[in-house]
């Protein structure tokens, strides 16, 4: 989703600006390092089992990216509301939050430092799958997580090393829930969440190492990640821990792609009651997650070369993904998600069409939103069709 380059717009604080006035126009000149863009997205939800047949405006995003010989940076802000599943708010934009906002410095082509709201480097990057809807890793706070802190990246021969320290989660956006962030992170539960806890994650330290690995015609990387943080409970005023590690492998052979990951998450909160769950939140909601468990995901994809339909359709990819959160407590039901889909570009519009299936999945099938990722919800497979159509500029 390329951003349109706007060399005639001011770069604000990021680059020097020369402004000249004439009788007819205002001329603004900047260095050609700033990309301004965004997206308009529409979503379609079709779930006959629940009587859901919805189409509406999904997302409006605005973004900026800066890149020079030494300085780099990026920011993106998102707006939601009024359309399904946010029909409970009055206006579009009543729900909004930052996805990321960071600045960085490149010491050279192989070393850089990022400061601000940047991506936590845990496991497969930037996502755990080829899907639009993402995996259960996102639900349990491991995938596509952005927090406030610093990250150092260095490449050495075939190795890539990333080290990060994050003081806290993203600042809250606008919405009706305590979970008013883009990332699904540890969040004090909303009042309606039964058995909810009130924890804040602090001082997240993380390290990731990945190496290029070629196996026959398969070209990819294998890596390991570890992280640890404090969980401060607002009720007991005590600190617990959150620890996790992951091993991953990703590779391509021609049009075929594969992504595999295993992760172990172990949280030891200091809740006033049951320590078997920790409340997480994001996208204007909060829910409980089992404190400990094993996460697995596997993704297989095939990219079709060339263009079709007289050049209208291009960049087509077919994919299938399965993810599982295997909970440590025997009385908790495991959560599963399976996605079969395709994504492609129709002229200037990007489209993803997916068949979503979930079992004890808080986001699929009308299962118990607050408890599915913890004790479990509807212990049966539930599915729906989902389409997202985006114009990126």
Shape: globular
Low-pLDDT parts are 1-30
Class inferred from helices and paired strands: mainly beta
* Fraction of residues in β-strands: over 45%
**N- to C-terminal separation?**
8 Å
Radius of gyration: 22 Å
Number of beta-strand segments: 22
The residue-averaged pLDDT reads 91
Largest sheet descriptor: 16 strands, antiparallel, barrel
Number of helical stretches of at least 4 residues: 1
Spatial ordering of strands, largest sheet: 3-4-5-6-7-8-9-11-12-13-14-17-19-20-21-22
Order of helices and strands: EEEEEEEHEEEEEEEEEEEEEEE
As a percent range, the share of helical residues equals under 10%
Give the topology.
Blueprint: E1 17-21, E2 26-30, E3 34-47, E4 52-67, E5 71-80, E6 95-108, E7 111-119, H1 136-139, E8 146-156, E9 159-169, E10 185-186, E11 199-215, E12 218-233, E13 239-253, E14 256-268, E15 277-281, E16 286-290, E17 292-303, E18 307-308, E19 313-327, E20 335-346, E21 349-359, E22 382-392
Antiparallel strand pairs: 1-2, 3-4, 3-22, 4-5, 5-6, 6-7, 7-8, 8-9, 9-11, 10-15, 11-12, 12-13, 13-14, 14-17, 15-16, 17-19, 18-19, 19-20, 20-21, 21-22
Provide structural commentary.
With 393 residues, the chain is an all-beta fold. The protein contains one helix and 22 strands. A hairpin with a 2-residue loop joins strand 11 and strand 12 (218-233). The longest helix has 4 residues, at 136-139. The chain is globular. 38% of the residues are buried. Residues 1-30 have low confidence and may be disordered.
């Amino acid at each position: 989703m390329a951003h349109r380059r706007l060399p005639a717009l001011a770069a604000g604080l990021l680059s020097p600006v020369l402004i000249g006035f004439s009788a007819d126009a205002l001329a603004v000149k900047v260095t050609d390092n700033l990309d301004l863009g965004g997206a308009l997205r529409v979503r379609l939800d079709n779930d006959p089992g629940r009587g859901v047949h919805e189409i509406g405006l999904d997302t409006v995003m605005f973004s900026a990216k800066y890149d020079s010989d030494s300085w780099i940076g990026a920011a993106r802000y998102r707006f939601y509301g009024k359309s399904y599943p946010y029909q409970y708010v009055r206006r579009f934009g009543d729900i909004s939050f930052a996805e990321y906002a960071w600045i960085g410095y490149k010491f050279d082509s192989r070393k850089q430092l990022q400061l601000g709201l940047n991506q936590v480097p845990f496991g497969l990057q930037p996502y755990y799958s080829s899907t639009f809807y993402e995996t259960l890793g996102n639900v349990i706070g491991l995938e596509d997580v952005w927090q406030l802190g610093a990250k150092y990246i260095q490449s050495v021969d075939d190795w890539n090393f990333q080290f990060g320290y994050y003081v806290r989660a993203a600042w809250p956006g606008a919405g009706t829930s305590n979970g008013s962030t883009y990332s699904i992170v540890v969040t004090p539960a909303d009042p309606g969440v039964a058995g909810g806890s009130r924890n804040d994650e602090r001082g997240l330290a993380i390290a990731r190492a990945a190496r290029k690995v070629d196996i026959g015609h398969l070209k990819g990387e294998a890596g390991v990640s570890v992280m640890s943080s404090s969980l401060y409970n607002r009720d007991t005023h005590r600190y617990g821990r959150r620890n996790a590690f992951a091993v991953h492998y990703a590779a391509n052979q021609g049009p075929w792609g594969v992504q595999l990951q295993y992760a172990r998450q172990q949280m030891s909160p200091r809740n006033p009651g049951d320590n078997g769950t920790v409340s997480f939140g994001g996208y204007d909601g909060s829910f409980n997650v089992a404190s400990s468990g094993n996460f697995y995901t596997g993704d297989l994809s095939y990219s079709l070369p060339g263009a079709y339909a007289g050049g209208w359709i291009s960049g087509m990819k077919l994919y299938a993904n399965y993810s599982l959160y295997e909970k440590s407590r025997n009385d908790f039901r495991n959560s599963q998600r399976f996605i079969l889909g395709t994504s492609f570009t129709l002229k200037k519009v990007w489209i993803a069409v997916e068949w979503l299936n979930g079992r004890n999945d808080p986001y699929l099938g009308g299962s118990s939103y607050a408890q599915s990722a913890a004790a479990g919800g509807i212990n049966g497979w539930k599915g729906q069709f989902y389409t997202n159509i985006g114009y990126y500029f």
